[in-house]
Amino acid sequence: xxxxxxxxxxxxxxxxxxxxxxxxxxxxxxxxxxxxxxxxxxxxxxxxxxxxxxxxxxxxxxxxxxxxxxxxxxxxxxxxxxxxxxxxxxxxxxxxxxxxxxxxxxxxxxxxxxxxxxxxxxxxxxxxxxxxxxxxxxxxxxxxxxxxxxxxxxxxxxxxxxxxxxxxxxxxxxxxxxxxxxxxxxxxxxxxxxxxxxxxxxxxxxxxxxxxxxxxxxxxxxxxxxxxxxxxxxxxxxxxxxxxxxxxxxxxxxxxxxxxxxxxxxxxxxxxxxxxxxxxxxxxxxxxxxxxxxxxxxxxxxxx
Length: 304
Fold this sequence. Notes:
By secondary structure, this protein is an alpha/beta fold. The chain has one domain (4-301). It is 22% helix and 21% strand. The longest helix is centred in the last third of the chain and has 19 residues, at 211-229. It is globular, with a radius of gyration of 18 Å. It starts with a strand and ends with a strand.
């Protein structure tokens, strides 16, 4: 069975080489992601998690809080998330061929004993992704900092694609993101780490005090947006199907207004910690989410 893979994040080197042309495209003529008439994922959508390797309880809570913050359904609580919020950012996906993109966190599997070893191939990721079955879901495989994955740091920080469940022929959308803290933070955790190439501006302070996990949040956001708007390679994208520019990857390196190569843009700064962020989440969390292409305006839209 042929498998479909999508590179979710370009390396900083690629960004620095080509971002000027993307910015010029956005400002001089609209950036257009073509709709290829295929299926998109619509809510209520369940995000299942496979934790591969050792994650601390705090690291898991940062990521789970982010995923729960995506939910645009009004909550039965008097506590309101301040604006700008992660939910408002995610709501942009509803403009893609219309429809709800509400999400819930589903099942979670902890594989702390490295059942497949510490060096994974693409087929290992597919296998892990099929360990959870469920309708209308995305199975997200997250690998710990000591786990190597084929292509990780070389050409990608995360991917999404589709595969068949172990039992039955139903296609399952899945994604993978790795923790780059010790392997390539200058590539996959920018702007929270000094970039390997290009302008050497000081790194930003990460909002949750964990460079690797806050970098993962950026890549998880990218992967999920791509999986929802182009789950089976027939959704919204620009360019070749085997290397598409998608909802967020088309806006690589843009986090706030006025961004340019090596500069993430104007962001909010926590007065106590000095951390940079652009979105509020649940439980008082703050996050940095990437720009997302807005199909109504044909521009890379930021929250600040």
